[in-house]
Fold each of these.
Amino acid sequence: MGEWLTRVLIYAESAWTWLAPLLAVTVVVPFAARVIHKFWVRPIIQVRLDDQADCHGRTPLVSLQDGKVVAQVMYLRLRIQNRGRTTIKDCLGNWVRIRVWSGGKVFDFAHEVISRGWAHYPESKQRNIPRGEAYYLDVATLLLSEDKKHNTLWWPDPVPPTNMMEFLHSLPPGKATYLFEIRVNADNARPRSVPVQFVFDPARSKLSFIPFNTRYPGWRWRWWWRARRDR
C-alpha cells in the first residue's frame, strides 16, 4: 500500500510540472490577446494646428436673414483627426482656461469649463469621428474691416457665456496675445490637452499663432520653446 501511494504521488508531481504551465498559458494568453487587441484597435485623438487653409483661412460671412455677404473673416480652427482603428465616440472640445497678455499686464479667465462647437456642425457640441476622418473645432474668428486696419476678434455661435464675454470685452484695446488651454475629450479615447496661442493685432489681417501636431513626440516641448521666445 505504501509503495503504491508513493508511485501515485510521484506521478502526480511529474504531471503537475507540465500541467501547471499549460493551465497558465490557457489563462494568460487569451487575456493578453484581448489586452493587445484592445490597445491595437483603440481610437486615438490627434490635434493639429498649422498654416494650412483648413486651420487658418479666409471666408465670407453670410447673413442668415437674406444670404448676402456682410463681411470677410479669418477663422482659426483645430483639426481633430481619428488616428486609431475604431470610431471616436462623443468627441467634445472644451475651453479650460484663457490667458491674455495686453498692455504689459496678464489677464486670466478660469471660472468655468466652456464647451465649443464644431465647424459646420450646429446639431450638437459632441460628434463621432470615424477611423481616419477629421473634423474642425472653432477657436477664434478675425472679423476683417473694410480698410483692413481696424480688425476685431469675433466669437460666432455658440456664443460664449456672459461672464466670459464680459472678460473679453474688458481687455485693453489693441494688440494682445491670447492663450487658450483646450481639452478634447471623448467617451472612449484618451483626452488631449493642447495650448493654442495666437497674437491679435487690429492692423493685421491674420492671426499669428504657434503651430503644433500631437502626432509627433516632443511636440509640447517645441511649442513651449516657441511660446517663450515669441512672448
Amino acid sequence: MAQLSLFVFLFMQSTDFGLGLLAPVLTALVLFRKDRRRSARLLILPLIWFGFIILAAVFAESTAEPKTAHWIGYAGWVMLAAYAGASAWNIITLPRARWIAIACVLLNAPVVFMTWLVLAMAASGTWL
C-alpha cells in the first residue's frame, strides 16, 4: 500500500495535480496521422517520465514522509539523458513530422523536469 500511495503522490506532484496529463494525451494524437507507424514512436516521450515514477514507487521506503531509495535521485539524471536522446532521435529521424516531434518534445519537457525534481526530493526526503 505504501508503494501505491507514493506513486499517486509522485504522479500528482510531477504532473502538477493532473494538468501535466495533457502532454501524453496530446502526444497520443499522433496515432490519428496517416503515417502513424513512424510517428507512434513519439509515445516513448511520456513513457520515459511515467516509467521513472513507477520505478520510484516500487522502491518506496516505509517512513513518515514520502521517501524512496536514495539511488532514485541518480536515476533522475538517467531519465533526463534518456529524454534528451529520445527527443533528438525523434526530431532527426522524422523528417515529415518534424514540427509535430518538436511540439511533442516541448509538451513533455516541463513534466520531465518536474518529474526529475520530484524524484530528487523523494530520494533525499527533503521536500520544498
Amino acid sequence: MKNLAVFILGIAFTLSIPSICFAQANSDSTSLRFNLSIDSGYLVLNDDFSNCIEIQDGDVINVTDGYTKVRFMAKYFYDSIVGVQLAKGEQKYLQLNSRLLNSQSKDANKSSFARCYWDSNVFILSETESMLTVNGEELGTHHIRLKLEEGFYRTTADYKNNIAGTAFRVEDGITVVRNYVRPTRGDVYKKILVPGYAQIAKRQYLKSSLFITGITAFGASALIFDNKITTGNKEYDLLRIRYNEATNPNEVLDIIAKSVTKMDQIKSYENIRKISLIGLVTVYGLNIIDGFIPPKSGFRSTKFEFNPYVDFDKSLVPTATLKVSLK
C-alpha cells in the first residue's frame, strides 16, 4: 500500500512538470505544437505580457529559432513555464499540464493570468469608498491595478479619515495587497474570547491595552492571594498541632493569639482574592461585550469585495478604471 502511494505521488509530480516531445518537421518554419491538459488558455513568449496569445489544445504557433521561454496561463490554474531550444526550421510538440489554483492559499500569486487582461502585476484592494495611495500619490478608490517595477512600495487607504497603511514588495509574478481599514464582523467576533484581541482588530489599541492590563492585574492578584491563603492555612495547621502538644499555659496563650491573627490574615486574603476574581470576571465580561460593539467607522461588508483570481473575466468592467505606471 505504501509503495502504491509513492507511485501515485510520483505520477502526480511528473504530471505537474511541463515536458517536451519531438515532432517531425513538415515545413521550413520554426514552430511549436501544443498539447494542453485543459481546453484553452493564454500563451506568453519570453515574458512579453503585451502580447498574450490565446491558444487551444492542438494549436501550432511559429516562433523564432533559438531559446524561447514559454509561459502558459489559464483562469484558476498555476502558470506552466518551460524553456525551449529550437533550431531553424525545427518543430516540437510541447505538452503543458496545468494544476488547479487554490485562490484562498498563499500560492494565489503563482498565477499570471491577470496580466493578459489588464497588463498589471500589482492589485491593491480595500473598502469601496476608501482612497488609495501608493508612495504618497492618490491613485483611485476601492481597488487599483498597477504595473510596477520590482522593489519596495507603501500604500495607504483612507476611509472617512480612518487610515491604514502597509508596505509591500513587488517581485516577479502577481502581487496582491489587501489593505482594509475596517474589520469584518467575522474578523472581530472570532477574536472576542482573547482579551484585547477584538479591540486590536478594530484598531482600538488603547482600549485593548486597558483590557489586557486589567485582566492581567486581577488575574495575577487572584493567583498571588490564593497562594497566600494556601500558605496561611498550612501555618495555621502547624499552630493547631503545637496547641495540642503544648503544656505550658503561657505557650498555649501565645499560640492562641497567633492563631487568631493568622485566621484574620487568611480571611483578609480571601476577601482580596474574592474581589480580584470579581474584577477579573467583570473586566473579561466587558471585554466580550465590547467586542460585539462595532467601531465608529462600522464593520466592513464583504458583499462588494473584489477577488482578482475569482472575478477575472474578459467582459469585467472594474470599479477602478485607473491604471498607471510608477518608476
Amino acid sequence: MSEENRQQIKSSDFCDKVVRFNDMKNMKPEEPVDLHVVRSWGKSWWGLAEHPNKKTNYTGRPDVDVPLIVIGEARRGGQLPENKEVYKFVTRNKNKTKPGPTPRSIYDGCEFCGGSCVSNAHNFTSGAHAISLFQADTDVENIHVFGMNFTTNLKPKHQHATNEFELHSNCCTKCTIHKTPKDTYAP
C-alpha cells in the first residue's frame, strides 16, 4: 500500500471500519483494524496458526484482538481459539447443496453475472469472499479496497481465480478499488 493509502485508512472521515486479512503482514503497528478475516487451510485458519508451508510460517499479529470473519471450516480437527469473538462465519458450500457462497462463487444475486459470479479457475481469495459479504450487507454503503493487486501469476501454485478484478469491477457496486503502488503479493 502507498503511504497515501495508509493515511486514508487511518482517517475516520474516510474509513469507518478497517478489515485486515489472513496474516496481516501488510499492517504497521500504529494502523487500525476492526475485523480480521481468517481462512481455513484444513487444520486451522491462515493468520491464527502456523501454516504447514514452511516458506510462509508467519502466524499473524497476536497483539491484535478484534472480532473475526471466518471463511470455511477447519475440517481436520482445528478449533478457533476460545477467546476469539466471531463477527461472521462464511461457510463455503462445496457441493452447492444449499444457498450461499461456494469456494468458486461470490456475489449471490448478481445481476451482471445472472445469479452469482463464478470463478474461472480455482477458488476466490479471502478478500473476494469478504468483499462479497459486505456488498450484500445493507448497512454497508461504501467499500474501499486497498492492498489488493489481483496478481495471480506470482507463484506457480497460486490457487486463486484469475477473473477477480473483472468481477469486483462489474459486480461490486459499492467498491472503489485503489490501485496498489506495485504488483507484488507481499509488502
